[in-house]
Amino acid sequence: MSEIQTVLQPQEEETAFQEAQAPFFSRFKQGLRAGAADASRAVEQTFSTLGQAASKAVYGACYGVSYGVTFAALGAARVLPETVLRGFKDGAKAAEQLLEGKSENSAETAEQPA
């Protein structure tokens, strides 16, 4: 009978060892899951913050360009003679008509089969 006990004893020890490790591995898995969740939240928060910063930068740049162009145009309108202003208006109108004509032509061209 001592032979049977000797054979069974290592299996019992292995089972006891596995049972002793179970809480450790359970906590280890919980820690990994919690760490992954924290990392995911941090990434989302970082990209959200970067997106907001980029949006504000683009807005600021567009605002500055628009302000500068408008300020210069209004300042020039007060200083320049009427004939120069009429030339600007007529040139802008001609460019607008040309662009509208091109966009209409390109839409018509796109509709026609090749």
Please give a quick description of this structure:
With 114 residues, the chain is mainly α. Helix content is 95%, strand content 0%. It has 2 helices and no strands.
General description of the model:
By secondary structure, this protein is mostly helical. The protein contains two helices and no strands. It has helices at residues 2-79, 82-111. The termini are far apart.
DSSP helix count?
Answer: 2
Distance between the termini: 95 Å
Q: What low-confidence regions span 5 or more consecutive residues with pLDDT below 50?
A: none
Average pLDDT over all residues = 80
| Largest sheet composition | none
The geometry reads as: rod-shaped
Helix content estimate: over 70%
Helix vs. strand class? mainly alpha
Number of strands: 0
Order of helices and strands: HH
Report Rg: 38 Å
* Percentage of residues in strands: under 5%
Sum up the structure in keywords.
0% strand, 114 residues, mainly alpha
SSE arrangement:
Blueprint: H1 2-79, H2 82-111
